[in-house]
Design a protein that fits this description.
Length: 66
């Protein structure tokens, strides 16, 4: 039986929500091992002068505790 834990992680990107998600997983994997899945809980964007400047995600990251 595996024990899984879920944490929330916030990330941003100037490119896309997908890039923000990838950056969050990459950064979290530096200290969190055995990541199993990621769930995008919320997406938002910062708009300035009618243009999207920054994409933001709030994700739930699931990993196995060993």
């Amino acid at each position: 039986m595996a024990i899984l834990k879920v944490i929330e992680v916030l990330s941003n990107s100037n490119t896309s929500w997908e890039d923000a998600t990838k950056k969050a997983v990459k950064e979290a994997s530096k200290t969190v091992k055995n990541i199993r899945s990621v769930y995008v809980k919320e997406q938002s964007a910062v708009v300035k002068d009618g243009e999207v400047q920054e994409f933001r995600v709030n994700i739930k990251l699931t990993f196995e505790v060993r």
